[in-house]
Write a structure and sequence with these properties.
7-stranded mixed sheet; Aspartate Aminotransferase, domain 1; homodimer; 14 strands; 14% strand; 3-stranded antiparallel sheet
Chain lengths: 396, 396
């Protein structure tokens, strides 16, 4: 053990993968402020503000709205362990990695899982979901991913939540990649349990998972027959800490500085305005798309269901995609994502999330990608991408 | 929703409660460095360094040593959900809040829990534990708290781990409050699953839970009959991300900036030296003790089992203890802790953890406490505490 260790100074990166996204200096500065106690009256007030800001961001009046003290996968698990009991049935729509993870969660709760499979790259099909709800009237909940980070596909949350309501099931919605990038209307949809992540379109550091639960979901939690299998994620206990009023019961020690960061990130989003943030993500996506298409590249997902903030781009035949990513990272500090599961080697995932959704990032990424592809003699059209992208941005 | 929100600037605090402790500027600065991806080669190298530093801190060669992406209670749950299966039996020693929480965890795993109860304020009794191990040969594990944060009591981990080995049970040890403050010799004890927290004697921000597992514990995890009930905490998956080599499988998104902070905090501890840090905690405890006793105050725990870093001090008869804490916080920015459970109203918990274990903090705390008690006409001896404390510090 004679390794000489020293303070870590990260290399400069441009984060254009599937998250984390670039974190604004304001958020980093907020996180570096002195730590206070997790039961300090000043911190309790901050928690109240975070709750208010999350309600605005989720577009909900849900009382049970908070940040789980863990990453998005802890938020996902919080939803399932609180809403399911052994022997329950859940319907899970699977059209990518995160639908599969939902299924894993359901099964580990001891519940039966009915999956509605869809080809990766396609949205969840409401007709198939309705058929599953019809043939499984015992199903307690319907779970689906709003924005599949593994494929860049947006599903129709409005219709799917309406179906869940019609068949008397609770809806569980993954908005990890959608929140802040495209409309997430929790009350408008009538969604029951919705979770997200701090490090995508909210442009905060990773580590927290915003969640919100409808009164119907809370009623379900209150009427459980047995304790939640996770003590850490048991909302009946967490509520006592994140609840209303000045009196908070100690449950666990909140990650105080991470909450400072989330507060600042949500504040910045509120200052920009939700609608303006959605418009920016859309505009930046169109610029990237124009540049990529000018180069001759194409998307995995159909335009009708394509996420602006997560662009799954097909790897041209004969190209070593890993070499392209390594070149971007090593030469230009740009991180883009690889394909997952059946899409490994077939797509890149280019994120335009939060602060990463910017013109300089897009121009850098297009130029670097063009350079990488030319080095591999890929059949692309060089020299057109930047102007194509800028033409889109300058349009009214 | 017309509340005008703005950036959060925390009040200045001196953290002398049961954690979090004061976080050094170096750690805060590390956390504010730009975020990189959780699979970035630079971050993977950092994870390797964190692992090495944690091994040094835990005094272990255990390969499976990492920081769980959640607070100490997530680290606790990670131990139980991975080591227990439904129908197993576990013996849990309970001498405070955190032993109770261990029991909750065991039961939520569907395992049977045999508790060995001890009066709060006393250490776990190895003789009673041995009796339980004898009468429950089926017990798979023995769990206990090394340093009970609710009472300020240290238990004899060496003897308890040896008993677990003798009766062929795995030992699970809570070192949340002990790690970095008093000796924690994981390999020396032969402990099997040990968890801690970032925000106590390590003086990092809250939110991460260092854990380490012996080869025997890993073997137990590998030979499970059924999947771990928590997907997020399933070490067979987490190992793929925190494992050796450059190739890491994505499991969840690590809280990147929090890991920067933990790295810096562990580095500072390595620079000071573990033995020096233990000696500093001890020396500062003796100073605080001298001051408190000069004033006429006394401790809950007997000297033989008293933690230097967590001082449970008896509230004098007739004193409104909540008013004292409020006065300290409002007038001097000092946070000290209240009693929990049966000790509510009976003790204060004064932390001297990590960077908080310093002479200026002790002098401020003694003077402020004296002032608060005099305001309530408590029968204390004023004017003696500071010199009594300093006399101890200046001793050779």
């Amino acid at each position: 053990m004679t390794v000489k260790l020293q303070s870590f100074h990260p290399p400069k990166r441009v984060l254009m993968g599937p998250g984390p996204s670039d974190v604004p200096p304001r958020v980093l500065a907020a996180m570096a402020r002195p730590t206070v106690g997790h039961l300090d009256p000043a911190f309790v007030s901050l928690m109240d503000e975070v709750k208010l800001l999350l309600q605005k961001t989720f577009m909900t009046a849900n009382e049970l709205t908070l940040a789980v003290s863990g990453p998005g996968s802890a938020g996902m698990e919080t939803c399932f362990v609180n809403l399911l009991e052994p022997g329950d049935t859940a319907i899970v729509a699977v059209n990518g990695v995160f639908g599969q993870r939902m299924k894993e969660n359901v099964e580990r709760c001891g519940a039966g899982c009915v999956t509605v499979e869809e080809e990766w790259g396609k949205p969840v099909d409401p007709a198939k979901v309705e058929a599953a709800l019809k043939s499984h009237p015992e199903a307690r909940l319907l779970a689906f991913v709003h924005a599949e980070t593994s494929t860049g596909v947006l599903s129709d949350a409005q219709s799917l939540c309406a179906l869940a309501q019609r068949y008397d099931a609770l809806s569980v919605v993954d908005t990890v990649t959608s929140l802040g990038g495209v409309p997430v209307r929790v009350d408008g949809w009538g969604a029951d349990a919705v979770y997200s992540g701090s490090q995508k379109c909210l442009s905060c550091t990773p580590g927290l998972s915003p969640v919100t639960f409808s009164p119907r979901a809370v009623e379900r939690i209150r009427s459980r027959n047995r304790k939640v299998q996770s003590w850490f994620m048991d909302l009946s206990l967490v509520m006592g800490y994140w609840g209303s009023g000045a009196k908070r019961a100690y449950h666990h020690t909140a990650p105080v500085n991470a909450v400072y960061g989330l507060h600042e990130a949500l504040l910045m989003l509120a200052e920009e305005g939700l609608e303006a943030a959605w418009a920016r993500h859309r505009k930046m996506h169109l610029a990237l798309k124009a540049g990529l298409e000018a180069m001759g590249l194409s998307f995995l997902a159909d335009e009708s269901c394509r996420l602006p903030q997560l662009n799954a781009v097909r790897v041209p035949a004969g190209v070593d995609e890993a070499q392209v990513r390594a070149y971007l990272l090593e030469k230009f500090g740009i991180e883009i994502g690889a394909g997952l599961g059946p899409l490994a080697g077939q797509v890149w995932r280019i994120g335009l999330m939060g602060a990463s959704a910017s013109v300089p990032n897009i121009l850098l990424c297009l130029a670097a990608l063009e350079s990488a592809l030319l080095r591999q003699q890929a059949p692309i059209r060089p020299g057109l991408a930047a102007q194509a992208a800028l033409a889109t941005v300058s349009e009214r």
